[in-house]
Amino acid sequence: MTDPLPPGSTVGILGGGQLGRMLALAAARLGLRAHVYEPGAGCPAAQVAARTTCAPWDDVQALRAFAQGVEVVTWEFENIPTAALDVIESLRPIRPSRRSLEVSQERLAEKTFLQGIGLAVAPFAPVEDRAGLDAALARIGAPAILKTRRLGYDGKGQARIMAPDDAGAALAAMGGRPAILEGFVAFEREVSVIAARGIDGSVAAFDPGENLHEDGILRRTTVPARLSAAQTSDAVLIAARILGALDHVGVLGVELFVTPGAPPGALPGALIVNEIAPRVHNSGHWTQNGCLIDQFEQHIRAVCGWPLGDGTRHSDVEMENLIGHDIDRLPALAASGAALHLYGKAEVRPGRKMGHVNRITGPAAR
Ligand code: AMP
Fold first, then answer.
1. The CATH number of 189-363 is which of 1.10.10.10, 3.30.470.20, 1.10.10.60, 1.20.120.1810?
2. Which of 24, 118, 172, 207 could make an S-S bridge to 49, C-beta 3.0–4.6 Å?
3. Which of 137, 185, 191, 274 to mutate to test ligand 1, by most ligand atoms within 8 A of the CB atom?
4. How far is the CA of 212 from the centre of ligand 1 (A)?
């Protein structure tokens, strides 16, 4: 067992977006310092971190200096070039480890891993070219979704195939990148479970939240999700199984489709795993106002070798993302009694996450 890092230690955070910002704030609350590494200038996390290195991912000197100045390194997004991790890993522990990152960076590896540990996923097949797509469609059938294997987020890099005639256009939308075809899941709702695993292997899960997406972007998370008691415990067991199989240290988000019936051979129940995020997740932002210990503190605790905190939900919460010009509603939101979480982004762009609000909708039922 590694000794917990004492207050005053420095946590390195790869990536300086809003997740890095909220991780840095949580670290500060625990008396820790955050050193953010981010290629883009003026990032949201730099405004609150004790230190920021603004340098590209291939700047070996900057990466080395960054690693030498911190006790542990974590990340806020999964598309970090592995060469950057090679440099850091030789100097400092990276938590969660490379395996979590590699599995979730690439959709084919992710689906294969999830299926391999006995979890239900949509039928899938790798696609490299037109012949491969035709073969995959013949096996999986339409409707289906073609997705790029890497760098897909917020519904980007995806094309729906409603009928075989759509195949050509869908393939063109991949721009020549390796893809994966997924069978379309006729889900009733989308939920996610955010869970943490400590260095000692202990696991703590937050209550599942119900997610509503618009244009591929998360719009709202509502807790509690409309799930039966059995589905709720299945969701938590799924997250725990993934955490254990990856030997993950830190927070991980699991997005699940709730289907009307269990597919043959699926384990457990009627929940199908869509994807995993090996980090704090937008659908866990409600924990900031619905729990004593939120996902950001839980992550910092885990990667610093501290005991996990009590993430029991004390309130029902609705989290709403402020996307693009939603931020123009700020005067009304500020007066509405909702908890505001703004990311300090100067420029409003369509589809850009500018902040979120958490509304308490009642006490949690016991
Ligand atoms: P993803 O980037 O994979 O999370 O996909 C973004 C959104 O597209 C999901 O939240 C779903 O609403 C939808 N989606 C993705 N994959 C599937 C699927 N296999 N079947 C049905 N809907 C999907």
1. 3.30.470.20
2. 24
3. 274
4. 11
